[in-house]
Amino acid sequence: MTRRTIEVPEGHDGDRADKTIATMLGISRRVAKSIIDSGDATIGGNPVGASDRLHTGDVVEAVMPPPEVPLEADATVEFSIAYEDPSIIVIDKPVGLVVHPGSGRTTGTLAHGLLARYPELEGVGQKDRWGIVHRLDRDTSGLMVVARTEKAYETLTEMMRSRLIKRRYLTLVRGVFTNTTGTIDAPISRNIANRTRMRVAKEGRPAITHYRRLATWDHREVSLLSVVLETGRTHQIRVHMRSIDHPIVGDPAYGRTGIAGDPGRPWLHARQLSLTHPLSGEAIDVVSPLPNDLSDSLATLGDPDHGDLADVDGEDL
């Protein structure tokens, strides 16, 4: 790991952080943004945002990424397809699969597997993340949309920015909810003390999460929720649930492990993806069944004290 320190010169006073860091370190703006997004660019120990304006004399410390390894197709990466057509693919990602290279992970990601199965993705979207419009954490299972063409990619990324793609999750959290619905509107930023984690902070980026109670187990002190993201910040559901004292069961970073219903990973599944097709305008609605580890977790809890084991549409889980 190589650390570089730069002092902002007069010629870059007021420039964006990603532009300044790219120029001063002799790297591409994409790599500079990656460093920033990873929390590896700081001023006085505080993470810098890509759009932050820097000023003459600011001292920026940056952790340089390892040399890039060209993305190679890997047909051994396993994942399921929930929907596909000539323009888009909806992936049903298994738990444990990293979405794309980064943070020292250079092989065996979904990006490698996608390139093997769909070689035409090369050149669509971001380098080494070909076609990928959004991501899921390694230990979150469920649905992701991927673009097969540049036109589809541009439209989908704009739809994501405009909050026109509905992403609904199922999660089991600690504690019993007395209210049936709620909204968490709390900005999220990177945790200064631990750059791999996020936190609720007033200086963070806007983040909004809506939830609906499906079932509760009073004697087990856990609740099953349906959650809809209005924004898409890193670890958003995990951070927001912890912020209201209902951390996700099985989450070692933000929640509690070893309690009732713990599946051995964060109990979080990207259940439903709904969008207007970027080319045809057709309504696309895809639902992912619960993976076995989460189904087994619910079975160990038994019948809930309130609600039942059915999704918002009444479909059994």
Quick overview:
The chain is of the alpha+beta class and 317 residues long. Helices cover 18% and strands 28% of the residues.
What does this protein structure show overall?
By secondary structure, the chain is α+β, with helices and mostly antiparallel strands. It has three domains: 63 residues, RNA-binding S4 domain (Structural Genomics Hypothetical 15.5 Kd Protein In mrcA-pckA Intergenic Region, Chain A, Roll); 82 residues, Pseudouridine synthase; 142 residues, Pseudouridine synthase. Helices cover 18% and strands 28% of the residues. The chain is built from six helices and 16 strands. Strand 10 and strand 11 form a beta hairpin. The longest helix is centred in the middle third of the chain and has 12 residues. The radius of gyration is 21 Å and the shape is globular. The model has no long low-confidence stretch (mean pLDDT 92).
Low-confidence stretches: none
In which range does the helix fraction lie?
10-25%
Largest sheet: 10 strands, mixed
CATH topology of the largest domain: Pseudouridine synthase
Number of strands: 16
CATH superfamily of the largest domain: Pseudouridine synthase
Number of helices: 6
Tell me the overall shape: globular
Q: How confident overall, as mean pLDDT?
A: 92
Strand portion, in percent?
25-35%
Question: Kindly, what is the distance between the CA atoms of the first and last residues, rounded to a whole number of angstroms?
Answer: 45 Å
The CATH architecture category of the largest domain equals 2-Layer Sandwich
List the main descriptive attributes of the protein structure presented here:
single chain, 317 residues, alpha+beta, Pseudouridine synthase, ten-stranded mixed beta sheet, four-stranded antiparallel beta sheet, 6 helices, 16 strands, 28% strand, globular
